[in-house]
Write a structure and sequence with these properties.
Elements: E1 4-13, H1 19-23, H2 41-46, H3 49-65, E2 73-77, H4 83-93, H5 102-107, H6 112-121, E3 127-130, H7 136-151, E4 155-161, E5 177-184, E6 192-201, H8 219-226, E7 231-234, E8 243-249
Parallel strand pairs: 2-3, 2-4
Antiparallel strand pairs: 1-5, 1-6, 4-5, 6-8, 7-8
Helix pairs in contact: 3-6
Length: about 250
Amino acid sequence: MSPVFVKGFGLWSLGFCDVMAWLTQNRDSTVLKPEARLLKGALKRRSSNVTRMAVEAYSQAANDAGCSPNTAHSVWATAHGEHETALRLFETMHEGEGKVSPTNFHNSVHNSPSGYASISAKNTAPSTTLTGGSELVAAALIEASCMARSFNNDTILVFADEALKPPFDLPGSEQPLAVALCLGSESNGSHAKISGIRRDSAPLQPVEGFGHLHISAILPLVEQILKKRSGRVSLEFGENEEVWGVDVDIENS
């Protein structure tokens, strides 16, 4: 993997309105819903919570990096996607006449956040949506890095997931989480250079509050960069002896 540069961050979770609030653990009990100001009118009303979370993190990362949400390329990564909407569809199909809501139907796809963001921002740049299990964070970083290098354009990588709802829920406390990183091929104004994504690192321990959310494996990388520490960071939970990791270089960014 060729080096790329981290230029901006975004984050939203219950109690945390942005990445610095999470980093300092400055929890605010009034932060219950993402603002997602990029979404307007009917688009915002029709959007799901996971879409609003993702769009909020996307907008924050663009603003932090000084790039435009109207022209940035994007990669969206989610393990569970719009599973709550999909569950509502199944319930509707077994009730009454079984008629499916068109809004719920089009909201149920994995690339729903990408669609809402691109329509709202009138952004016609390339966009990819990925899903996966424990290796999702590494796969998404590779995809976004390749996009940033190939097109020589700012690329915003967004992770977003909610806790699984019954009957698919897992034990453990899980908060909803959306995290975004703006990646670029040039170093001007960046927080860090990242490179060397490979499978040679020790597995991470679960991040407090986020339980089984695979995407929370991005948080140790965010923390290490914002605390200005160079070194290798793991990108995966699990019981394997070796998992995916990435090199962080603060000094040469």
